[in-house]
Amino acid sequence: MKVTEYFEKAKGTTLMSFEVLPPLKGGSMQAIFDTLDPLMEFKPPFIDVTYHREDFVYKKRTSGYYEKTAVRKRPGTIGICASIMHRYGVDAVPHLICGGFTKEDTENALIDLNFLNINNVLALRGDARKFEGKFIPEPEGHNYAIELVKQVADMNKGKYLDTGIAEGAKSDFCIGIAGYPEKHFEAPNVDYDLVWTKAKVDAGADYIVTQMFFNNDKYFEYVDRCRAAGINVPIVPGLKPITKKYQLNSLPRLFYIDLPEILVKELEKASNAEARRQVGIEWSIQQSKELKASGVPCLHYYTMGDSDTIQQIAEAVL
Ligand code: FAD
After folding, report:
1. Residue 243 Cα, ligand 1 centroid: separation in angstroms?
2. Rounded CA separation 54/308 (Å)
3. 9 C-alpha to center of ligand 1: Å?
4. Does residue 127 have its Cβ closer than 6 Å to ligand 1?
């Protein structure tokens, strides 16, 4: 079923969904099952699987020179999604990115997904590779997520890249996109960012999942701005509990988000790692409860492999 159909079926009640990371190369599918098994009691209708493109590392050769080598640390999403759907009988949502893919690669991935009855995708641009500093598309790839949304929407109309296909089978993908309550870091201002979010929706996106945030007001204001701009699709809040001290700096650095002063103070005051974890859990519970009371369609948790923490939050919010 499509993600948006779940929202419609829920008729105003708030669902819960989870996002998992593919295991590191050399790991196994069991790592994902270990994360998801304890969370299935919360009846998520869908599970997102993130995509991580290859990056470059420098390896020292015997000559002493360094060699630049491409390394893909995490496997792709298609097999993982199929396994999740098979094991739990829920829908899986692969994240599809522009980076590292030609349009042809994307078309092939979409064909595979369609054959496997994976009818939901989250269409994203992807980030710059660490050493490149800015996002560089593949030659013959997409520059922005909107182009990816258009390609998926085209396939939904039976339009393939291969113009030799006159009447191609129509896929039926439900298309999610990313949204940024605190603005995408490259956008010069919130209004500029919103113009492109609206353009993605006009191009065929069916719903939005937000970047994590720790102040619900940012989400509520974002939804208000979206509605005022004519964006009327469901906007799913993305939530991540902060549980470790280093995240006080790493989350703002990596995700360009603000942490409320009161949360920072409480985390700094906590005397040990477990006390800090409990501060983060309690904060996330309060955030979730307020969002649920406001009638959000779904609470979408970034699990990062930490099912214990997410389980504690979900139990308190249910
Ligand atoms: P876009 O919509 O392409 O926007 C990128 C920037 O360009 C924005 O500043 C926007 O305002 C601007 N812009 C957009 N279109 C145009 C245009 N046509 N012309 C000029 N400017 C434009 N990354 C991964 O690699 N793998 C994942 O699995 C993953 N999952 C994510 C899930 C969620 C819910 C979120 C919020 C992010 C995720 N990301 C993931 C990160 C995401 O790829 C990055 O944030 C990336 O930098 C932007 O992606 P986007 O789809 O929002 O890009």
Report:
1. 25
2. 29
3. 29
4. yes
Beta-carbon contacts of 315 under 8 Å, excluding residues fewer than 6 positions away, are: none
Domains, the chain, in order of start with CATH, read 3-8+16-317 (3.20.20.220)
Q: Is the CB of residue 97 below 6 angstroms from any atom belonging to ligand 1?
A: yes
Angle 190-202/216-228 helices, nearest 10 degrees?
60
Q: How far is CA 75 from CA 19, 71, 72, 81, in A?
A: 16, 11, 7, 12
Q: What is the Cα–Cα distance from 71 to 68, expressed in whole angstroms?
A: 10
Is the C-beta atom of 196 inside 6 A of ligand 1? yes
The answer to whether the CB of 226 falls within 8 A of the CB of 191 is no
Model confidence over 13-23: pLDDT tens digits?
999 999 999 99
Q: What is the pLDDT of residues 73-113, one digit of tens each?
A: 899 999 999 999 999 999 999 999 999 999 999 999 999 99
